[in-house]
Amino acid sequence: MKRYELLAEEIATSIRSGMLDVGDRLPSVRQISTSRGVSVSTVFEAYYLLEARGLIRARERSGYYVTAGNTRLPPEPVIHSNCSTGAHPVRVNDLVFSILESARSRDVVPLASAFPSPLLFPLPRLARSLARGAETMDPWSTVDAITPGSATLRRQIATRYLADGALVQPDDVVITNGALEALNLCLQAVTQPGDAVIVESPTFYGALQALENLGLRAIEVPSCPRDGICLDRLAQALAADKPAACWLMTNFQNPLGSLMPDANKRALVDLLAAHGVPLIEDDVYGELYYGPRRPLPAKAFDQEGLVLHCSSFSKCLAPGYRLGWALPGRFREQVARLKLTRTLAVAAPVQEGLSDYLARGGYDRHLRQLRHTLALQQTAMSAAVLRHFPAGTRASRPEGGYFLWVEFPAGVDTLSLQREACLRNIGVAPGPMFSARGEFRNCIRLNFGHHWDAKIEGAIATLGALAAAQLDSPRPAPAIEEPGLSALGA
Which fold has domain 3-66? Predict the structure, then answer.
């Protein structure tokens, strides 16, 4: 551990223990430098790290202050998945579409949203880069970069991976229209209709929709809110069900927020390679870490070219620009051909604009501020869940991203809760959205990626009251197939 990390951890321990309380002013950078015999830059790095974790914040011309301390948190969830070995058809589209449609209005409190607030991103600066990129764009680039994409942008993406310790070459990268296109292209490259694909339980509903659209079946394997997919159960599924592929999020999984330890990622890649099963890795939240460094993707441990890694700028820099990429390993040619026949190319001005932004610097500064904001908002939401939700409620403790997974006591039905919340202009993502078998009826995913204010605090209080009312007056749970726009109050 580096010197600034040791210093940051010591201060963090003082904050969590209560020795330093919320609102306390930290010693000045020069005081710490003198008393500890370390450089000023070391102290600044430690304070920047604590800011990224949401523990302290700088006030202009005043110094650094503690913003979050030994806040009590709800207990962590325990995944009680009934999923067993065996592949099952997927039918989630109607449920997912109806719930997303019911939460589209700007008047709805966006707790069900899949995106953080657009106000967190440097959109004016991106717009200037987009204009510069269009003005200086080589006309021939509109032809040369059709597939796999802008050479300059691919080089910048590869450089970021290299800086984090993952060996990536520009020619490994295929630029796509967002991560979802990358994921779908990779899925198509390694499967045929009727194949079975391993997914986590719970899993991102977009993965389930992709399986349903391609006529694939799902093998659900339980995932832990802290460490990710259960490797023992994964090994059983690989041996019993002979899947064609595996689709996972190893960093800050949606909806749990789990982060697989590096040792687990290495074991995961080795296990899948032993069975010859490709891994489609969704890593769209990897840059949104609260700790000292970006967690490595599973791709970093890939020796066989079996990991098809996908990411994008949509969640961390440029929502709406729809620019993602794939590192498809040994399947690069198949993915590039599918891209060519499906959508041909990503808009050249968007690629040139993002290239201009990345080349001018400032991206990492933006990410530090974004991580800091998300960490603070996670603390606020966790504390609100503890205050307002019924006794016995559990919540995850993600180390990155912007989703909180909440497990209510068994008497709460979150499909009913979602409909009642919708009538009050509150968006909620109920647990059955995240399971091919309609599990997790007493769970919800909450988005803390929007500015914390009285409106969101009030929405959390309302959800807690609605859940408590269900526990006081239990009622039969509706069938999973029932939600439609009219039933959801849309």
Answer: Arc Repressor Mutant, subunit A (1.10.10)
